[in-house]
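Weekly modeling sync, notes
Attendees: S.R. (lead), two postdocs, one rotation student

Agenda item 3: backlog of single-chain predictions. S.R. asked that every request posted to the team notebook include the full sequence so nobody has to chase files. The rotation student volunteered to paste the first one in as an example of the format we agreed on. Action items at the bottom.

Example entry:
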Amino acid sequence: MKVLRWTGAELRDGAAELAALLADTVAGGASVGFLAPLTRAEAAAWWRERAAEAAAGRLAVWVAVDGTGRVAGTVSLARPDKPNSRHRAELVKLMVHRSARGQGLGRRLLATAEHAAAADGITLLHLDTETGSPAEHLYRSAGWTEAGTIPDYALSPDGELRGTTLYFKRPAAPAPPRASAATG
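Predicted structure, as returned to the notebook:
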């Protein structure tokens, strides 16, 4: 499985593949901002709308592609545009296709985004996820700290009000390059 950062053009051109992932995620009951049923056309349009943000550097999108070329997962980092918040980013839309779950792909995507954030000088990450969802276990086990819960925050894909739990993490700075014995 390859995990690649997609440019704005790749995001626009690959919107249909990402739409299949988004539609599967919503059909599986994950609360990622959409109500069921979500058509692939609606999902593709949503992804194409993100292309300009990615091209401008306000959104970084990583895509996991399996050996057949199918998109199996994605994660994004959204950068704020305010001068007082350029040290932080929001982790958004961590999704793994139902057929690829349980293989560590969500953890790999999460680590990819965290490492990239640290390398880019981001000192604070934050996210929100549906309270009681399986994603909470992933974030806690990856060292994210719960900041609090907001009741009745959003509708689930099936239209029920659900709470959201906020998390944050300070990504570790990348290790400095090791000096080789031959340099001096």
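Discussion: group reviewed the output briefly. The chain has five helices and seven strands.
Action items: rotation student to repeat for the remaining queue; S.R. to check formatting next week.
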